[in-house]
Recover the amino acids of this structure.
């Protein structure tokens, strides 16, 4: 097999920059542009035309018109399913181009974008396409003289606001269930990842999604995101991002039309390692889970909670894992990690690490300085870093870093491990490592998290929901449950003549 020369291919990469409204690429009303740089090498990318309230109004109007005339909602579910499955095929056919786009815009290794992200995106869209015509409505037995129908109706206009870390996986997790239910959508991608979002949406049109059913507006969160959140003609907001912005969307709703908001927010997941665990697997997997995707992962196992009796052995394996994951050019064939999304974000991550050191943590592996990849001094790289001496309550232990930084906390008992795991405001995910089935169940029942992994990490499937509790929000992505977020239950009563 001939290896793709990604660096050469990147030179001819075309990157769309306009908004997508009613099936057309259009210029926004205003003149403002957003200069973007590739975090890989600091090079300039095509400027993005920034939207404002007028662009939001136009996109929402396009989605509303498409919903009103039922050009999509009125199709048979089997027809909607077929178009979505065709869309998934087109994603697969264009996977290399889109993976390269993601890698250039947000810095993850192109191989991961291709083999993990693009596969997940196609799989997600196909999965919802397949379930389209397999969801029966209900008619509860209500008596001989009446007929009661309980149907799931599309909610109307759905707004999806997404982050940049798994830009298209997060987008597919929203678009799959929202579209299969018959809604029209306005998508606002993160500022850093507009190009891949536009490419994904264009393929939906090519697959036969009617114009206006999926619109894309680009712009700053505080402008475009807020205008969408406050819009009086939007029925549902599905949001993935930081806890603070998730709460802002709940406020926008309360201050406008009371639209429903589904927040899927950040995490500070604990990986609890009990003394009887397979220590090498537990240590390596927890470290991997906090470094993978440059640590820019909502479910990152950023806190390793280890029984004191095994901490030395665990640290030994965690260090080996960190050393095997040194960042490299994301367009090289075998980079384990790429660049952080931006120079700005790199500075945030450095700030977290330096703050931890001031609070008394020590760098066990890695560093508190930027990492330089040969030949790319302008790239925003950071090496996997393990901090020891971290205590519950320290800022590094409480706050999401969203970089490849693992905090190690030692505990003396299972009880203490549970207390530490539950000691933050967030509750997305957790893992417990033990060979004792009862201990695994005791811990997993008491850990406040939407997802608990026992002796594994990042296990997932389209049929299984994903989401958090507490400050991590209450939305759930994936599975048939996600479709319910975008539908209303409707009851129709009919009196029957005897
Ligand atoms: P973010 O800053 O919250 O931004 C997310 C989205 O919200 C972006 O599209 C952003 O637009 C927009 N936004 C920002 N400020 C806004 C405002 N004031 N009003 C309305 N919209 C606004 O998050 P991020 O930095 O992109 O992503 C990282 C976060 O996402 C982390 O907390 C991570 O844990 C979380 N995440 C959660 C999951 C999950 O499934 N639970 C999955 C992945 C990521 P701009 O880009 O234009 O600012
Ligand atoms: Mg942002």
């Amino acid at each position: 097999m001939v290896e793709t020369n990604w660096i050469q291919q990147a030179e001819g990469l075309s990157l769309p920059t306009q908004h997508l409204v009613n099936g057309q690429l259009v210029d926004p009303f205003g003149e403002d542009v957003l200069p973007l740089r590739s975090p890989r090498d600091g090079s300039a990318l095509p400027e993005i035309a920034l939207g404002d309230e007028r662009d939001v109004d136009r996109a929402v109007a396009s989605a509303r018109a498409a919903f009103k005339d039922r050009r999509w909602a009125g199709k048979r579910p089997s027809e909607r399913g077929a178009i979505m499955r065709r869309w998934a095929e087109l994603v697969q056919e264009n996977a290399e181009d889109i993976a390269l786009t993601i890698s250039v815009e947000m810095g993850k290794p192109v191989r991961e974008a291709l083999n993990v992200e693009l596969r997940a995106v196609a799989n997600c869209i196909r999965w919802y396409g397949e379930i389209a015509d397999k969801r029966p409505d209900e008619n509860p037995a209500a008596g001989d003289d009446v007929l009661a129908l309980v149907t799931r109706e599309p909610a109307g206009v759905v707004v999806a606001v997404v982050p940049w870390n798994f830009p298209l996986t997060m987008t597919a997790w929203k678009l799959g269930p929202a579209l299969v239910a018959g809604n029209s959508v306005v998508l606002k991608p993160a500022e850093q990842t507009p190009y891949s979002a536009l490419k994904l949406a264009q393929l939906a049109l090519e697959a036969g999604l009617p114009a206006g059913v999926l619109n894309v507006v680009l712009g700053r969160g505080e402008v475009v995101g807020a205008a969408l959140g406050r819009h009086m003609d939007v029925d549902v907001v599905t949001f993935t991002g930081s806890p603070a912005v998730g709460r802002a969307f709940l406020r926008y709703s309360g201050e406008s039309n009371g639209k429903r908001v589904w927040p899927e927010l950040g995490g500070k997941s604990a990986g609890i390692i009990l003394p009887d665990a397979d220590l090498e697997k537990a240590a390596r997997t927890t470290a991997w889970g906090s470094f993978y995707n440059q640590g820019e992962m909502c479910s990152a196992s950023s806190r390793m909670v280890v029984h004191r009796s095994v901490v030395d052995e665990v640290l030994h394996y965690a260090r080996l894992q960190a050393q095997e994951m040194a960042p490299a050019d994301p367009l090289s064939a075998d980079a384990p990690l790429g660049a952080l999304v931006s120079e700005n974000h790199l500075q945030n991550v450095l700030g977290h690490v330096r703050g931890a050191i001031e609070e008394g943590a020590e760098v066990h592996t890695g560093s508190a300085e930027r990492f330089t990849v040969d030949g790319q001094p302008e790239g925003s790289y950071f090496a996997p870093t393990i901090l020891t001496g971290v205590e519950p309550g320290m800022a590094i232990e409480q706050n999401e870093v969203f970089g490849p930084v693992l905090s190690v906390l030692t505990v003396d008992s299972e009880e203490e491990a549970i207390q530490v795991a539950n000691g933050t405001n967030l509750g997305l995910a957790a893992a417990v490592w033990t060979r004792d089935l009862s201990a695994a169940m005791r811990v997993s029942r008491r850990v406040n998290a939407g997802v608990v992994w026992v002796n594994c990490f990042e296990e997932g499937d389209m049929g299984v929901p994903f989401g958090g509790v507490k400050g991590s929000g209450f939305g759930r992505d994936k599975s048939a449950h996600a479709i319910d977020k975008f539908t209303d239950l409707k009851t129709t009563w009919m009196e029957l003549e005897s």
In short: The radius of gyration is 23 Å.
